[in-house]
Amino acid sequence: MDTVKHQKKNTSALKKSKSVKNINHYTNVRGLPSIEKIVSSVEDTPRPISTQIVGTIPEWIKGNFLRNGPGKFEIGNHKFNHWVDGMALMHQFKISNGQVTYKSRFLSSDSYQTNKEHNRIAISEFGTVTMPDPCKNVFQRFLSRFESHKPTDNANMSFVTYKGDYYVSTETNIMHKVDPDTLETEKVDWSKFIAVNGATAHPHTEPDGTTYNMGNSYTSKGSYYNIIQVPPTKKTEDETLEGATVLCSIPSVDKTKPSYYHSFAMSENYVVFIEQPIKLDLLKIMTGKLRRKSISDGLFWDPKLNTIFHLIHKHTGKVSSLKYLAKPLSTFHQINAYEEDGFLIIDLCASDDGQAITSYNIQNMRKSGEALDEVFCTHEDLHGEDLHEYGGLEFPQINYHKFNTHPYRYFYGCGFRHLVGDTLIKMDLHGKRMKVWEHPGQYPSEPVFVPSPNATEEDDGVIMSVVITPDEDKSTFFLVLDAKTFEELGRAVVPVNIPYGFHGTFNATA
User: Fold this and answer.
1) From residue 264, how far is each of 109, 276, 300, 346, 406 by CA, in Å?
2) Is residue 333 marked as binding?
3) Coil, helix or strand for 389?
4) Contact of 282 with 298, CB cutoff 8 Å
5) Does residue 202 have a known ligand-binding role?
6) pTM for the whole thing?
7) Is residue 503 annotated as involved in ligand binding?
8) SS3 148
9) In sequence order, what E strands does 204-360 have?
10) Are 461 and 452 in contact (CB under 8 A)?
11) pLDDT tens digits for the chain (510 residues)?
12) DSSP state string for 417-446
């Protein structure tokens, strides 16, 4: 984790917190256990089922804890190559009066339906290229290689909100609007509203509901990064992204090799786009089907390039003429950003190489024993040496609605001694203290903070997570921790197996 300070005065210097140390180390954990079952296909559970409550689920919690991630890793005899390729499975933990029910549903995307109909991988994903149709003759199969990749609508990354509605999203131009109670969906195409080829699965939302996101566009003049603004409310009940606008467009430094980005930072007045040295070779991607290569083949890490921080004023769309530079780093998730004493402070999870994406090929995730020892974590530590014991931190979350874009004290995340989270961590920026929840053989997902009713302190609330137990059959559980003490309040054990997912959110109900 890194704290980067950008001074807003007339200087191009990039300043870092004095507490930051540049540390390049390998995790000292060896002989990591196999987590193969975490990436094993499951059946969905479309009707609610009861769970076994251990301890106490606070009765003030009322709503749906929603999770998203891959749930099917092969179609017929064909297997997906990358973790993010698996077919989207939506999960709902409905909490009321101290009880929890669980249900899940495969996203009825075009990709899922087409694959199911042909009983093979018929739509290419990030790390998997579509297989030739055996029903076509040799000439037809040859011609099909000259077709471009059809963008997937397999939105398996996160749950997000626009205008108060919930969507499942990945990084293409297709999202799906979701009823958080029934998990029924409706397809929504960004390109019907604004000229972008996709958008991130990590938008930022203002207190009034105005939402910002980023998306690429590819034109004859080159590649552009676009800042997107979506209005806070709907004018009619059935509208989706109407009124979305492109606030500004930033040209890529290299027109044919734009940077990959998974998210961005936002302060009270600025959107911060981080142009990192993970690059997209558009020519390789465009010719991928001809070469029988997936989109992931077009990604590469260029350590000769600096990382560029672009500042965009949210209210004017004006891009700062100053470019703030840092050493080559890769970042997927930012923790928070805020303005203080003439500085723009950005806290983020970062590493100093671009190997994170390829580490999550499914064959890597199915390794065991010594074969896992090559997996390492490189990071810049925002805290003390004690974090190293837990392999660094990812999937960061904060008390978002109260403290996003503002100075804050606490954040939460998963410790990554393995390829997925194997601990939950609470960080206290005052005194660099940390609390840890861990149990061998249990793999918690991204922690989500939910404030207590009438909360007066930043960490007054609970942490929700789903804990996967690959060594025990049908023992996955929904976990609730006291956010202050980080001690377990209760869990709801689910009598079905659940794969490890990506992101989630809590949908409070009356």
Assistant:
1) 27, 11, 20, 10, 16
2) yes
3) helix
4) yes
5) yes
6) 0.87
7) yes
8) coil
9) 204-205, 211-219, 222-230, 245-251, 265-266, 270-275, 278-280, 299-301, 307-313, 324-326, 330-340, 343-351
10) yes
11) 655 454 433 322 233 333 333 434 334 556 678 888 888 999 999 999 999 999 999 999 999 999 999 999 999 999 999 999 999 999 999 999 999 999 999 999 999 999 999 999 999 888 898 866 555 554 444 444 445 556 899 999 999 999 999 999 999 999 999 999 999 999 999 999 999 999 999 999 999 999 999 999 998 888 999 999 999 999 999 999 999 999 999 999 898 999 999 999 999 999 999 999 999 988 888 877 777 788 888 889 999 999 999 999 999 999 998 888 888 999 999 999 999 998 899 999 988 777 776 676 766 666 665 554 434 323 335 556 778 788 788 999 999 999 999 999 999 999 988 888 899 999 999 988 999 999 999 999 999 999 999 999 999 999 999 999 998 999 999 999 999 999 999 999 999 999 999 999 999 997
12) SSSS--EEEEEETTTTEEEEE--TT-EE--
Residue 29 token pair: 């954990």
For residue 367, how many C-alpha atoms fall within 13 Å in the half-sphere facing its CB? Answer: 19
* Token pair for 330: 């890769």
What is the Cα–Cα distance from 478 to 445, expressed in whole angstroms?
10
Chain-centre distance for alpha carbon 177: 18
393 token code pair: 């931190």
| Amino acid making up residue 115 | N
